[in-house]
């Protein structure tokens, strides 16, 4: 049973969107979303795409000569330490793409579905101001959303919103969950130690900084390791299952690293011109796992012969 405050949107943001309750089938009373957009000529847009082509009218500025440039809405859906920071900087190096970062890292923005929808509306109306905003001629706008930031918890409403408003999802996950775990532990470690001149950095721009952060070798709890990997695996699988009815593309960090051409698949998916994408991010953990885990021998025997064995030897980097 889902209960919503239906009125909030129309009050705050110029009533660009109104929501009504629908007493439709069975289990869920959900929201109807109506958006007033710029009247632009859609006759050249193929019928299958019409739902995904938008002409937002921001309230904070005018789109000027680009007001009838179509805009696509997207969300990068990922989990911590899956390369999504790197991926987002690559997308933002494109002149027509604006990805506004991890906006739901702030708790109050995800404390209930109304806050979530308010925030999404602001982003997709091109009214979200961040260092990534490109404003007038943005052709694809979005942000980065971690599964555990209110997304899994509200998946029914989010899927409904995405499908109603024509938001496309970019799933970005990591195949090697053991490497992801090492990266998480190292990141948590630095959160406390702040090894780079007293500042915690989740991402770095020089190999010098990368080396400092990679010096830490976590010790993994081998009693709970298999269970932990299984939990992480199932959490992601369930999430993808629940979100699969949205228009989406699925990417894996390892595949992107080995084959940058896959980035063009993303640009095509967003319908923006193909461009070379660049990022200043430098990968932190580049060594074999055996050199990055304190109790490697124990970890090896804990995973040897299990379904996660392949994580032990796989490299996700090119030297
Ligand atoms: C929309 O564009 C098409 C093709 O460019 C044109 O034939 C049509 O007259 C336009 N419609 C309107 C309402 O301007
Ligand atoms: C991309 O941005 C440039 C410059 O801001 C603009 O001239 C161009 O029309 C935009 N392209 C698209 C597809 O919107
Ligand atoms: C939703 O959360 C926001 C921010 O935390 C709060 O101001 C608002 O009252 C909440 N709304 C509902 C319906 O709980
Ligand atoms: C966006 O924020 C920056 C500083 O964070 C500010 O300089 C700029 O004027 C803001 N732009 C808008 C349109 O509010
Ligand atoms: C710390 O700051 C000093 C001086 O600003 C700089 O030379 C040094 O490289 C910095 N160290 C790290 C780890 O960033
Ligand atoms: C390892 O995990 C087990 C099972 O969750 C737990 O009982 C144990 O205390 C953990 N050991 C350490 C050193 O954290
Ligand atoms: C790299 O990715 C592109 C786009 O997905 C694909 O067409 C190509 O076959 C891939 N190349 C290799 C070597 O896997
Ligand atoms: C991994 O398991 C196989 C048998 O399942 C065993 O032969 C091998 O010695 C094990 N490797 C290590 C390093 O423990």
What tags apply to this protein structure?
disordered N terminus, 319 residues, 35% helix, two-stranded antiparallel ribbon, binds 2-acetamido-2-deoxy-beta-D-glucopyranose, single chain, alpha/beta, 8 strands, 2 domains, Rossmann fold
Description of the structure:
Helices cover 35% and strands 12% of the residues. By secondary structure, the protein is of the alpha/beta class. The protein folds into two domains: 51-175 and 227-269, Rossmann fold; 177-221 and 285-313, no CATH class. The strands form two sheets. Strands 3, 4, 5, 6, 7 and 8 form a six-stranded parallel β-sheet that branches. It has a two-stranded antiparallel sheet with strand order 1-2. Helix 3 links the parallel strand 4 and strand 5. The longest helix is centred in the last third of the chain and has 19 residues, at 225-243. The protein is elongated and about 65 Å long. The termini are far apart. One 2-acetamido-2-deoxy-beta-D-glucopyranose binds at residues 221, 223-224.
């Amino acid at each position: 049973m889902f209960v919503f405050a239906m009125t909030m949107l129309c009050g705050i943001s110029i009533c660009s969107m109104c929501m009504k309750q629908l007493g439709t089938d069975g289990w869920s009373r959900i929201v109807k979303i109506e958006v007033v957009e710029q009247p632009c000529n859609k006759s050249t847009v193929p019928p299958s795409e019409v739902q995904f082509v938008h002409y937002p009218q921001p309230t904070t500025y005018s789109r000027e000569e680009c007001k009838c440039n179509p805009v696509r809405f997207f969300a990068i859906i990922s989990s911590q330490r899956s390369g999504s920071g790197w991926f987002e900087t690559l997308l933002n190096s494109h002149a027509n793409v604006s990805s506004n970062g991890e906006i739901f890292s702030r708790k109050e923005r995800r404390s209930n579905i109304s806050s979530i929808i308010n925030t999404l509306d602001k982003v997709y109306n091109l009214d979200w101001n961040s260092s990534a905003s490109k404003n007038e001629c943005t052709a694809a706008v979005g942000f980065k959303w971690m599964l555990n930031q209110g997304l899994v918890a509200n998946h029914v409403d989010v899927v409904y919103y995405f499908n109603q408003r024509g938001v496309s999802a970019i799933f970005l996950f990591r195949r090697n969950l053991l490497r992801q775990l090492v990266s998480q532990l190292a990141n948590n470690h630095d959160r406390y130690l702040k090894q780079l001149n007293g500042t915690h950095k989740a991402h770095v721009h020089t190999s010098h900084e990368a080396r400092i952060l990679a010096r830490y070798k976590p010790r993994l709890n081998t009693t709970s390791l298999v269970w932990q990997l299984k939990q992480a695996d199932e959490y992601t699988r369930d999430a993808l299952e629940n979100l699969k009815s949205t228009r989406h593309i699925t990417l894996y960090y390892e595949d992107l690293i080995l084959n940058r051409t896959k980035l063009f698949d993303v640009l095509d998916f967003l319908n923006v011109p193909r461009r070379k994408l660049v990022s200043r991010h430098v990968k932190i953990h580049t060594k074999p796992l055996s050199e990055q885990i304190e109790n490697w021998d124990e970890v090896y025997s804990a995973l040897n012969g299990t379904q996660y064995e392949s994580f032990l030897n796989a490299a996700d980097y090119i030297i």
